[in-house]
Design goal:
Blueprint lengths: L3 E8 L11 H9 L1 E8 L6 H6 L5 H15 L3 E4 L15 E2 L2 E3 L3 E4 L5 E4 L7 H5 L1 H27 L7 H8 L1 H20 L4 E4 L6 E5 L2 E5 L8 E5 L5 E5 H6 L17 E2 L1
Helix pairs in contact: 1-3
Organism: Rhizobium lusitanum
Protein name: UDP-2,3-diacylglucosamine pyrophosphatase LpxH
Keywords: Cell inner membrane, Cell membrane, Manganese, Membrane, Metal-binding
């Protein structure tokens, strides 16, 4: 499989330390994608779950080692902490193995546009003002993910394509749909306040590239349900890559190394 090279890659919401994290898929993605700069846009490590129950299998180590290896070879890697890895917010400006930590960043694309890069949890009223409620929501999401895993296994055995129960359930709840829309609007307004042409964020696990009132809104998605990343090409255009869509539709028993390369679900 050929390696794809980009100017910039944006990845968020991996949740290493959670049993739902698809670290093996991300490792495969990192093996076949290179970039001059990689932004880790928050919730890469799931500190919340690790505090409750330590879970750190070898593939989590492999992802960390792969990122450190890329940094040693010259890739600039910027880690912008989210709410699940908020412990890193105490170290702005610090470097760990060549990975720099920042609260937020202003990214300039190849065509000269400015994009505010942040995780986005500061605009989530539940996380900011009702931490207990946020933890309860996190637990409910865990349950949905467990159902998701079981259904995915059954559908693979029946040679049916991947379908995310958790993503479907989220979009059936009117409050959740309204929240996504409001979150996008507020984050786009923050980009305007910072004189940016657009914003790149994560947090809500809903990958998209769209224009909102003159602002380009880009969400990186996640590596729990959808396995998505945002890539900037050498001309400054963006592509939304959906890696899991390719992986999950392979025959049962196919190894990750045998799976074809994602062609990208959306370009803009």
């Amino acid at each position: 499989m050929d390696t794809r090279r980009f100017r910039t890659l944006f990845i968020s919401d991996v949740h290493l330390g959670s049993k739902a994290a698809k670290a093996d898929f991300l490792l495969d993605f990192l093996r076949h994608h290179e970039a001059d700069t990689i932004y880790l846009v928050g919730d890469i490590v799931d500190g919340w779950r690790l505090k409750r129950n330590w879970f750190w299998p070898q593939d989590c180590n492999d992802v960390v080692q792969k990122l450190l290896r890329k940094a040693r070879k010259g890739t600039r890697i910027v880690y912008i902490p989210g709410n699940h890895d908020e412990f890193l917010r105490d170290f702005p400006g610090m470097h760990f193995g060549g990975i720099e930590v920042a609260q937020r960043a202003m990214h300039e694309t190849a065509d000269g546009k400015k994009y505010l890069v942040l995780h986005g949890d500061e605009f989530d009223v539940v996380v900011r003002n009702a931490r207990l409620l946020a933890y309860l929501g996190d637990w409910a999401y865990d349950m949905a993910i467990l159902i998701n895993i079981g259904l995915a296994a059954v559908r693979r055995r029946l040679n049916m394509p991947y379908w995310s129960f958790s993503a479907w359930a989220k979009l059936q709840v009117k409050h959740a749909v309204n929240f996504i829309g409001e979150f996008q609007r507020v984050v786009a307004e923050e980009a305007k306040r910072n004189d940016a042409d657009g914003v790149i964020c994560g947090h809500i696990h809903h990958a998209v590239i769209e224009d909102l009132d003159g602002v380009r809104y880009i969400n990186t998605g996640d590596w729990v349900e959808s396995c998505t990343a945002i890539a900037e090409h050498e001309d400054g255009t963006f592509e939304l890559i959906t890696w899991q869509t390719i992986l999950e539709t392979q025959p049962v028993g196919a190894s990750i190394e045998e799976l074809p390369q994602s062609l990208g679900a959306q370009a803009a």
